[in-house]
Amino acid sequence: MRRTAFCVVMACVICMALDGAAELGYADAAHVPHSVEKTFGTSSPPIEWPAILDEVDAYQFFTSHDGRNGELRALYPRQPGEPLQGGEVVETDVPPDQLFGTPRPAGGGWIHLGGVVSIGAEALRVQVDGSGLGADDELWVLGVRTGRAFGPYTSEGVANPRWLASVQGDEAVLLVVSPSEAPPSVRLTAYSHIFLSMRELAKELDCNIDIACETDPGILEVSASTGIMLVGGKWFCSGNLVNNEMTAAYEPFFLTANHCICSDDEVRDTEVYWDFRSSACGLNDAPGLDSLPRSTGASLLATSARLDATLMRLDSVPNGVYGRTYAGWDARRAVRGENVLAIHYPDATHARISKGVVMVASGTGNGREEQIEVLWEEGVTEGGSSGSGLLYAGTNRIAGMLSSGTEHICGTDRSGNLDWFASIRGFYPQIAPYLDTATPSTVEGDDDCKTATPTCPFFVTYSSQPALLARFRALRDNVLLKSDAGERFVAAYYQAAPAMADAVARSPRARGLFAAITGPLARLGER
What we know:
By secondary structure, the chain is α+β, with helices and mostly antiparallel strands. The protein contains ten helices and 29 strands.
């Protein structure tokens, strides 16, 4: 015990040397201009449709969420740095003979149709097990409201329960084109009632800044790298395409946060929607879900719960009306006071931009290590912004991915609008084989879905006293970080913080000693 207490005391007062690590890699962005010849989502079933929608004679009606969208929006709070829950998943088990109706001959084969309805859903996503599909069977999802088809899916793609493409509105139709008249071996295993309207602006903070109001051409160009993600049937997050400038091909690499995606199954159940933004400043006319270009996750490449970072590969990257950008990135150390920005999807609404300054170049936040702390001077982030890239102003290279933050407010006092970003610098050893080589690795990464543990002893000790935590933060920002010696002390503290947090979490005596030593210092943070 004495040894532990001694370590806590010494770690609080001794400045450790900075690591002085050499500068690491970087890449600049690559922009693919919009081309009218390039299209997306043009796949269509090999039959005449949507006329066949009138022939659906088997429906699964789910009514448990009818009229409850407002209740569900209130039930799941929106918090910056957390995945935004916008859907509620219901498991079910509907066998093929109930899911599909009367088979109909078409083109020398047969078509099988089955409707799925969750009354009142803003959007609907269904999960199926198609492991018994025949080699020549094709499965499609048809959006009834917008007339868009998604597919084809084959037995290999849905060999285990897998989420299919989401559709706008509360009705989806499953279509199987098969050489066989027998009901196709597809079971409905779950559905997601998506209750969050991606067009709803009523509850969004009014100090969000529409990306369409940005005038810097470089920022507008890099904004075409940002996508909004739907993970499975629940979570909305943000992320960015990133460039490997050493390859001739445009590699479909996508960066986000580990708390958004931490496993290969989650990657394969993820959709990324592109170009969800207003056409001009002040119009708020972002297009509907089904009209957006989209990608699907293909494989997990690297992820870290310790850092809160994930790199994954997408199946493809469609171009769009704004072109498509593969963002640059930079593994250098951030510098306190430098200007940064982020482009993201707050509350799962259309793209916004926030601008601020780096407060801490490498610290801890919400149990994560090697975080960059940012104070927003313009704009804010909200739930749904998680995973979005932090960009260095000027170069527009990604420095990190949004990990967590405080609850932001609008108004003149913006001192509490803080976010923490997982640093590219910390993640670089894991992603270099994909982003910083002429021959990108094809090795897939391992899942890392550990729950974050507190790495800040102040948070562990004073978590029930937010006013004191605010004073300690003010002491750091307004006193210590105003001098070179203070900056070195803060850097040393953050290196020792994880071990200190573990000590005070495990031992009430160590926690009491830490409080006795640090408590009087809170007065220095009073304004």
